[in-house]
Design brief:
- It is a single chain.
- The chain has 335 residues and is α/β, with parallel strands linked by helices.
- It contains 12 helices and 11 strands.
- Strands 3-2-1-4-11-10-5-6-9-7-8 form an 11-stranded mixed β-sheet, with helices on both faces.
- Strand 10 and strand 11 form a beta hairpin.
- It is globular.
- The N terminus is likely disordered.
């Protein structure tokens, strides 16, 4: 007699053991990134409006590990009061006084424009305030690239960190936007030590269907890579999520691809899909999600109050490695 579905599932002890094994792997990918940064010089970082415990403590913890050298930008009295209230030692850190959060964002961006800071870090202000200053014409940090966001996700069940982009900035990216989003992510992967990363351009299916625009755009992006319009990575798409990250799923569907089952970068069709994917991995697969904004003159660290200490430090470490890679690119260009 066939057993009901509930009876063929793993026993509670087996599920608990599997979960413990996966959790033992949690943070290991991030810890290796943080360790790499400790061998480098701390990166001067403008921290915009660090006026609550989480943002101020996060900057100080990263400084204590040697990842960054914070420049605290915001109301001096409020920063000092926060440090005193939560017993955070800010002795020796530079404070640039600004009357309020809008001014702090502007001053932090100005420090980056002047070369006094090589990274930006979001404090206790709204993301829109900081990004508004970053993209402002004439005084911001725009480049020829589209600005995009990337999550570097530590998923315990996977043997590698994966990059999910863009889940935070570009709501409905155009084909040209996606070209920049992918190039930003490939450059990020290179800075992290993953050369020729495998890029899966995601959709709901792995076949091209004119009724599903994301499949057509995925095919166009792959051809753009063939023609050298996107460089440094191996692209394939459209791919569904299952066959992008699971080799068995790819084999079942007879997908012959160097990317299928091995993707390092997952490019989502739009912000809604990316946000759902990142949060699904975080809340249903116990993943951590370090975040960074790319495509500006300097890397921008975006952290959430809900982030763990390790995730906040990993976000700082990722940005520091991007800053180091840019320094090396400038040296090569000068040479």
């Amino acid at each position: 007699m066939k057993k009901p579905l509930g009876e063929v599932q793993a026993k509670p002890f087996e599920r608990s053991l599997l979960r413990n094994l996966l959790m033992e792997q949690k943070h290991k990918k991030y810890e290796s990134l943080i360790a790499r940064c400790q061998a480098l010089a701390p990166v001067p970082t403008a921290v915009a409006h660090p006026c609550d415990e989480t943002s101020l403590k996060g900057a100080v913890e990263a400084a204590e590990l040697g990842i960054l050298k914070p420049i605290l930008v915001g109301p001096r009295a409020k920063i000092e009061a926060t440090a005193a209230q939560f017993q955070i030692d800010i002795t020796g850190y530079e404070i640039v006084d600004a009357p309020h959060s809008h001014a702090a964002a502007d001053l932090a961006v100005q420090l980056a424009r002047e070369g006094k800071a090589e990274m930006l870090m979001k404090g206790s202000l709204h993301t829109d305030e900081l990004m508004g200053a970053v993209v402002r014409t004439g005084t911001g940090l725009r480049t020829e690239r589209r600005i995009s966001h990337a999550f570097i996700m530590d998923v315990p069940a996977l043997d590698r960190a994966i990059i999910v982009t863009d889940a935070a900035i570009n709501i409905f990216p155009t084909l040209e936007d996606k070209q920049h989003i992918i190039q930003n992510a490939i450059d990020l992967a290179a800075a992290l030590g993953f050369y020729q990363p495998k890029v899966a351009v995601l959709s709901a299916m792995e076949t091209i269907n004119p009724k599903v625009p994301s499949t057509v755009e995925a095919a166009a992006l792959c051809k753009m890579a063939d023609r050298g319009q996107i460089t440094g990575g191996i692209l394939d798409g459209p791919l569904a999520l299952d066959n992008a990250i699971n080799l068995n799923a790819a084999k079942i569907k007879h997908i012959d691809s160097p990317v299928a089952g091995h993707a390092d970068i997952l490019v989502v069709p739009d912000l809604e899909a990316g946000n759902m994917l990142a949060k699904s991995l975080t809340f249903m697969a116990d993943a951590d999600a370090a975040g960074i904004v790319l495509g500006a003159r300097v890397p921008i660290i975006l952290t959430s109050r809900a982030d763990s200490v390790t995730t906040r430090l990993a976000s700082c470490a990722v940005a520091a490695l991007v800053a180091q890679a840019r320094r090396e690119d400038v040296k090569k260009a000068v040479a």
